[in-house]
């Protein structure tokens, strides 16, 4: 059993999630990299391992409670604890709020909101065994009410809900060592962000890694570039 901190990172076969996994591993964290596609997930793990990083792959479908239960059981049986949960997996898009099909809204909420909620519920018992448990939800400024605009309705509203979950769960876990925060990576050059985005994945991942490892941070806040921002 590893003596390192143990992290689960969802949706980590590419983009920000993969970079978060890489940076955590560079900081002496053992990372369980998860993804829906086992081939892509294992390929990313093999790439990180070839760089000497301590990572492994576990399949995880954020739309499937059975899949989440299997992951929680695996971590319990294999390691008996968890230190860091990064809820990164997400779907984008959503179009005009007046035209988005309910099917698309529900699909987006399953991955972007209900998935992080249920996975957190399942893994909190393991996080309670950590001296400094952390839940970091990867959100977006597009979900902030003070910057709300049109378009991308399903994505925006699901991230607003994720922000609310962060604050509520942090309050429900007050008095425990577990801290819950959310962060906006900014507009990052990924498959979702596009090639014209101004930020690198390295910069986009930086604050999540800081929230996972920094000792003296608050709980129940929204961050960008290691600074608290408005909801």
Account of the 3D structure:
The structure is a single chain. With 231 residues, the protein is an alpha/beta fold. It has a single domain, classed as NAD(P)-binding Rossmann-like Domain (Rossmann fold, 3-Layer(aba) Sandwich), CATH 3.40.50.720. The chain is 42% helix and 16% strand. The protein has six helices and eight strands, in the order βαβαβαβαβαβαββ. The protein has helices at 15-26, 38-50, 65-78, 102-127, 153-172, 201-213, and strands at 5-9, 29-35, 55-59, 84-87, 134-138, 179-183, 222-224, 227-228. It has an eight-stranded mixed β-sheet, sandwiched between helices. The longest helix is centred in the middle third of the chain and has 26 residues, at 102-127. The chain is globular and about 50 Å long. The N and C termini lie far apart (39 Å).
Top keywords for this entry?
alpha/beta; 8-stranded mixed β-sheet; 8 strands; Rossmann fold; single chain; 42% helix; 6 helices; 231 residues
Instruction: Indicate how many domains the architecture comprises.
Output: 1
Q: What is the CATH homology-level superfamily?
A: NAD(P)-binding Rossmann-like Domain
CATH fold title? Rossmann fold
Instruction: Identify the strand order in the major beta sheet.
Output: 3-2-1-4-5-6-7-8
Classify the secondary structure makeup into a structural class: alpha/beta
* Computed Rg: 16 Å
Mind summarizing the main beta sheet?
Answer: 8 strands, mixed
Regarding CATH, which class?
Alpha Beta
Low-confidence stretches: none
- Strand coverage percent: 15-25%
Number of helices: 6
Helix and strand pattern: EHEHEHEHEHEHEE
Total strands: 8
Mean pLDDT: 95
CA-CA gap between termini: 39 Å
Described by the principal axes of the CA atoms, the overall outline is: globular
Helix fraction, binned, reads: 40-55%
CATH architecture: 3-Layer(aba) Sandwich
